[in-house]
Write a structure and sequence with these properties.
Elements lengths: L1 E9 L6 E5 L2 E5 L12 E9 L2 E9 L25 H13 L6 H19 L2
Antiparallel strand pairs: 1-2, 1-4, 2-3, 4-5
Length: 125
């Protein structure tokens, strides 16, 4: 069978794993290493035993393509990209506000300029 491992938690007895795949629970031995598959699709086999459905073997499912992740920004100089520094400046200012370091517009201006200059200096490396 193929399914996505939703969660892996210890059983009530503490002697095995309780594995949620889709909407069904399965048992698994601690040495199965199934906890490394949380959030991933697996191809597995199971048997119905004394303690319910029990995973006998499993492997990561390679038949479905992995979800694509956003492409990282190229390293090095930005060549004057359109305000590449804005998320950084925004985060710095937001954290300074949350920490109580920014109390008025003049403080905000100083923090924003300093963050902008830091981003520009790092981009020039």
């Amino acid at each position: 069978m193929i399914g996505k491992v939703q969660s892996v938690v210890k059983s009530k007895s503490g002697k095995s794993w309780r594995v949620l795949i889709g909407k069904d629970f399965y048992g698994a031995n601690f040495d199965s290493n199934i906890e490394s598959a949380v959030g991933k699709s697996i191809n597995f086999s199971f048997q119905n035993g004394d303690f319910g459905n029990w995973i006998e073997s499993w492997a990561l499912d390679n038949s479905t393509p992995a979800p694509q992740t956003a492409t990282a920004a190229p390293q090095g100089h930005s060549n004057g990209g359109d305000r590449f520094y804005m998320p950084f400046v925004s985060n710095v200012v937001a954290h300074a506000i949350a920490a109580g370091r920014i109390q008025n517009p003049a403080d905000l201006n100083q923090w924003a300029k300093a963050a902008y200059e830091a981003a520009q200096a790092l981009d020039a490396l």
